[in-house]
Amino acid sequence: MITDLITAETASGIRPNRALYGQTAFNKRGISYEAQTTSTAFGQIAALNLQQLAMRLIVDEVRVDRARYQSAAAAKTEIVSNLVFAFFAEAGVDTEDPSHFKRFVSNFDADQGGGRVRVYIQQISSKLVAITVEHYSKIVATFTTGVRKWTIS
């Protein structure tokens, strides 16, 4: 992974500063190191917490995604699962920053209530009120060169 982060930096000119592990991928990482008999692998690498792993990979942040979605009537499926992604992203920046992924949101004028949401309240009957919330958000991959994806098996 460290070698491929260098490759990503060479390809795009910017080193990925974030790594996102799926829960399965992160668990397999630990299992593979724990299976090794050397004290270095188990004691120094497998036992790293997320902050220490980020320091080892020279990234700002490492996260583990545990999110699931309803894939069948009685089943939930991991979204990221056995994948690991590395990418560059900064918080609180504008359209000109070099982040690989950006989230664009609409802000409403002060005469419309301001902020990022608009709420409409409509009286349907004496016992029924309809509340509608309007919010616009779009996540875009603006520059994919340098984004890395690994499948852990």
Write up what this structure looks like.
There is one protein chain. The strands form 4 sheets. This protein has a 4-stranded mixed sheet. A two-stranded antiparallel ribbon has the order 3-4. Strands 6-9 form a two-stranded antiparallel sheet. The longest helix is centred in the N-terminal third of the chain and has 12 residues, at about 25-35. The radius of gyration is 21 Å and the shape is extended. With about 150 residues, it is α+β, with helices and mostly antiparallel strands. The protein has helices at about 1-10, 25-35, 40-45, 50-55; strands spanning about 20, 60-65, 70, 75-80, 85, 100-105, 120-125, 130-135, 135-140, 150. The chain starts with a helix and ends with a strand. It has a single domain (about 1-100, about 145-150), classed as phage-related protein like domain (phage-related protein like fold). The protein is about 25% helix and about 35% strand.
Principal-axes shape call: extended
* Largest sheet composition: 4 strands, mixed
Structural class: alpha+beta
**Considering DSSP H and I runs of 4 or more, what fraction of the residues is helical?**
25-40%
Distance between the termini: 14 Å
Please tell me the CATH architecture by its name. Alpha-Beta Complex
Radius of gyration: 21 Å
What's the number of structural domains? Answer: 1
CATH class: Alpha Beta
State the fourth-level CATH superfamily. Answer: phage-related protein like domain
User: What order do the SSEs take from the amino end to the carboxyl end, as H and E?
Assistant: HEHHHEEEEEEEEE
